[in-house]
Amino acid sequence: MKKLLLIRHAKAAHQDGKDFKRPLTDRGVRDSLTMADQLQTMHLIPEHVLASPAYRTKATAELIFEKLGIKSKAYNDFIYEANTHTLLNIIAGLPDEYNFVAIVGHNPGMSQVLYELTGEMIDMPTATAALLAFDFDEWDMVSSDTAKLAWYGTPKGNEAFE
């Protein structure tokens, strides 16, 4: 079984014309660390992390996964401003050696791919994470409606699903 953790970057400062370099706000840093605590408590520690190279996304990923002790990470330029189709292709192309992967990205892509994979219409505010479970062992089998939402967390709390 494959598991995918979708994470939307934490709250970032607004800067005119410099979207790619927007830093996290103080709240964004706190929310990232709160999410790391939740993931640790739930024993949701991915083997590998793939993130957008945008500053706010890298910062979110680093704060969360440094606290969890995750060493295997990579950045993918295509996650920045990715649509559903692009994200599905990225997920389907993940190496099968990893059974549990996290992707840290942006909205609307994170919310859209969550809906596409699960049929669940759930918004992903900043610093939100959603755990998806698949009933197969190859990432290239990922397609529409192939995942179940197993867990959903925000900095304010979380919920497990059956």
Automatic annotation (TrEMBL):
<protein>
    <submittedName>
        <fullName>Phosphohistidine phosphatase</fullName>
    </submittedName>
</protein>
<dbReference type="Pfam" id="PF00300">
    <property type="entry name" value="His_Phos_1"/>
</dbReference>
<dbReference type="InterPro" id="IPR013078">
    <property type="entry name" value="His_Pase_superF_clade-1"/>
</dbReference>
<dbReference type="InterPro" id="IPR029033">
    <property type="entry name" value="His_PPase_superfam"/>
</dbReference>
